[in-house]
Design brief:
The protein is of the alpha+beta class. The chain has three helices and four strands, in the order αββαββα. The strands form two sheets. The chain has a two-stranded antiparallel ribbon with strand order 1-2. A two-stranded antiparallel ribbon has the order 3-4. The longest helix has 17 residues. It comes from Penicillium capsulatum. This is N-sulphoglucosamine sulphohydrolase C-terminal domain-containing protein.
Length: about 120
């Protein structure tokens, strides 16, 4: 009954609480909220320049945890780093990001994934 009520409501966009219904189906890759000022988690701060350092710190913390636990969901541009682990352990260079940049098509001089970063270890930036 609740879903029918949401589907048939007159508001546009359709809302669930303070969030548009669409937010429950497509979420951004990263979300960051100030739960003191925004307890309903409506205003995503992840792309705000003022919060870049907080987001970077949280990314590092998350990646450290993913490496310690050998989480197969540690992705870089859609590629599981666990799948390329054998390349890293063999001493091969693995691009830090997998997306192809047409403006910088050569791979020489581009950042690589840290070779000396063992699984089960912490990353220090």
């Amino acid at each position: 009954m609740a879903y029918q009520r949401i589907r048939n409501c007159q508001s546009s966009p359709k809302m669930i609480g303070w969030r548009p219904l669409q937010d429950y189906f497509s979420r951004p890759t990263e979300e960051l909220y100030d739960i003191q000022a925004d307890p309903d988690e409506v205003r995503n701060l992840a792309e705000k320049p003022d919060y870049r350092s907080v987001l970077d710190e949280m990314r590092t913390t998350m990646e450290n945890w993913q490496r310690r636990t050998e989480d197969p969901r540690l992705y870089r541009d859609g590629v599981s780093m666990l799948l390329v682990r054998h390349h890293l352990e063999a001493g091969l260079e693995v691009p830090d990001r997998w997306d192809f940049n047409v403006d910088v098509s050569e791979s020489r001089g581009q950042p690589n994934f840290a070779r000396d970063f063992a699984w089960g270890a912490e990353m220090h930036l």
